[in-house]
Amino acid sequence: MNRRKLLGGLLAGASVPALAACGGGITSLKGDGGSGGSGGGSSAGGLVIGTANFTENQLLGYLYAEALRGAGVKASVRPNLGSREIVIPALKQGDIDLLPEYQGNLLLHFDDKAAQTEAGDLQNALTVALPNGLEALPYAAAEDKDVFCVTRGTARKYGLRSFTDLAARNGELVFGGPAEDKKRVVGLVGLKDRYGVTFKGFKALDASGPLVKGALKKGDVDVANLFSTDPDIEANNWVVLADPKALIPAQHIVPVIRAAKADAKVRKALARLGGALTTRELARLNKLVSNDKKDPDEVAADWAKDHGLAKR
């Protein structure tokens, strides 16, 4: 199947569900419920790009900004805003205009019963599931999936090769990941419902960041939620557990935008970026930021220039 198949310019028709109280139930970065944004029907006033609170998503935000500026669109980045439970309401309220997202987890955010796993099917479902006024633009070649990892020693000790094997160790292991994993389908909820897995404990840490990776190394957690493009998985010889029942859907990078800002110039710029950004390239860029300690905005600027996307 053509992995680039999508529904393009369709607008979504579903309303956003009630969100868990986060920060006292505030659903706007302004802290007062939001103003709904400036609108304007085009990108003439520029776009504000928001990102979640992990390295790769910040990097993607800067890549979006470089691609837009290269196309003559003003763009600024508000990095590290928080989890999906924060940034999606901010986008809906108009505090930000654009987000780098991940197909499968984004769909599950709006529909926790969604069964789609293939990229094209996920894209089609997103056009229905997104709230009015938001749109999923064409997805990138690059994909970054959630993966659940164990150390090589833990895999040998408990005979772990897949999620199915975890059920044989119910009540013995500790799971580590971002706090949201406790209530997400791609997390403890899905592992219990689809595989019958329960854990001895859960440690709320970060999203494929130094806290969860440090805990995995030290043995403070036995199973860690990391991202498939994280260079530390290969560097530490960690074992990625197989997912035979496809709990984790495709996770191609997808720009989610306020439809009022999605004019032809914006669409073309982000489509060019999406076509050029492969999974291998994204992993390489992650390594430059996470391991080589380079600034994500500088890494993004260099990459955009090298690929003819930056402002000339």
UniProtKB/TrEMBL annotation:
Nucleus listed as a keyword: no
Keywords: Signal
Stretch forming the signal peptide: 1-20
Database matches in InterPro entries: ABC_Gly_betaine_transp_sub-bd
One Pfam family this sequence matches: OpuAC
Protein's name according to its UniProt entry: Osmoprotectant transport system substrate-binding protein
Gene3D superfamilies from the UniProt entry: Osmoprotection protein (prox), domain 2 (3.40.190.120), Periplasmic binding protein-like II (3.40.190.10)
Domain ABC-type glycine betaine transport system substrate-binding: 47-305
